[in-house]
Amino acid sequence: MAFVAIHLLGSMHFDGHFLAARDLLHSCHTAKLSLTGSIALVRIAANRRSSHPAGSGIERCEFVSSASLRNRVTSYSTALLVSGLALFVSWLLRLAVGDSLFYIVFVTAVAFAALFYGIGPATLAFVVTALGARYWFIQPYHSFAVFSGSQLSGFFAFLLTSSILIVFGEVNRRTAERLRRTNQELEGRIKEHALQLDTAHQHVRDLTGQVLHLQDEERRRIARELHDSVGQSLVALGMNLSAVQNGVKSTIARLTEIVSTMADSSVMVKEMTSEIRTISYLLHPPMLDEAGLIPALRWYLQGFSERSNITVDLEVSEDFERLSGDLETTIFRVVQECLTNIHRHSQSRVAMIRIRRLNAHVEVEVRDQGKGISQEKLSEMLSSGTAGVGIGGMRERARQLGGSLEVKSAGEGKGTAVLARLPVTNNSSTLVAAALA
């Protein structure tokens, strides 16, 4: 391309400027060779980096050295190329408007190098453009003779302007670099602190979940062992006592008292077996995990009605969906505690349970028609906090899930109502409610 450009310029009959154009193109060609050499050095550095094992100290040292060398070669090559381009543009402008604009073009090239590449490349650009100005654009042409008076003043103006631009460009570049490094350091610290905070929160959540999980597993283990070991042994003991009872009945009359005692013992064993089986299921009903809240409640209410002769009415919508395990366990325990209080204290023969979902809350209401609570005792319970273990436990369960529990009574002989409102959420913090199950 350089030889084609020289041929075209020669055909334009600019004999006086042919040598200058050829020298200018030769400088551009030299800058191109320098840029090609820098690319080759970068490729050599990359090949050398790939020849060392990953993570070695030699690789890191040579990579930093090669990167620094590559940046320097690129900066100086670009500054040299810009200087050559400025010389070429000035030569073209001289053909059009004369020798009045070449210093402006040279100052632009120096300013570009100072702003983007620093003081070294900018100084190189100044030296190249100054030599080119003296050789091609200041009379006598093609000579490095000393400047005359007017030429010297113009050159000193170019020198002063270039020096100011180089200084300001270097200051601006260093300031931008410091700001960039400071910004990166601050971002790194913020990310590090955020990561540490997230890690700490995650550790707390993991530990809470593990504790609650271990508590549930321990409850399941105790219920299973009571049912499988002690329960089976008591069943076998009951069978043996029944056999002894049948044998004693056929003996003489003097063993009548023994037979009666054995019969009483057998009845007591059966009652103990039934109570232990009931306790085992009440500690942690299997249907609550397998089938969900509503089937588990229906199973529990059926057994409760048979044991206590209290009629219980359960009101729940057909499309009631399953909730989280913690929320279902809390609702089951609230209903269980309310029915226990009705059986022990209310003297009511009927009970009503209503469960409904309102937007983001679940409302559980348990009512009876028993003797109720007087207003004085209810006010004392609410003000002094001596509501008993059962009511206190239900309130604590509701509070752990972010809900509330209210106890209402219109007075003695008018029944009692317990109303619990629980938010529907999957937040991990609600796992604390499982610890109370």
Summarize the structure.
With 437 residues, the chain is α+β, with helices and mostly antiparallel strands. The protein contains twelve helices and five strands. Helix 3 packs parallel to helix 5 (119-137).
Secondary structure layout:
Layout: H1 2-11, H2 18-50, H3 57-97, H4 102-117, H5 119-137, H6 149-249, H7 256-283, H8 286-290, H9 293-308, E1 311-316, H10 325-346, E2 350-358, E3 361-368, H11 375-384, H12 388-400, E4 404-409, E5 416-423
Parallel strand pairs: 1-2
Antiparallel strand pairs: 2-3, 3-5, 4-5
Helix pairs in contact: 1-2, 2-3, 3-4, 3-5, 4-5, 4-6, 5-6, 6-7, 9-10, 10-12
Structure commentary:
With 437 residues, the chain is an alpha+beta fold. Among the domains are: 2-145; 287-437, Heat Shock Protein 90. Helix content is 72%, strand content 8%. Strands 1-2-3-5-4 form a five-stranded mixed sheet. A hairpin with a 6-residue loop joins strand 4 and strand 5. The longest helix is centred in the middle third of the chain and has 101 residues, at 149-249. The radius of gyration is 48 Å and the shape is rod-shaped. The two termini are 87 Å apart. The relative contact order is 0.05.
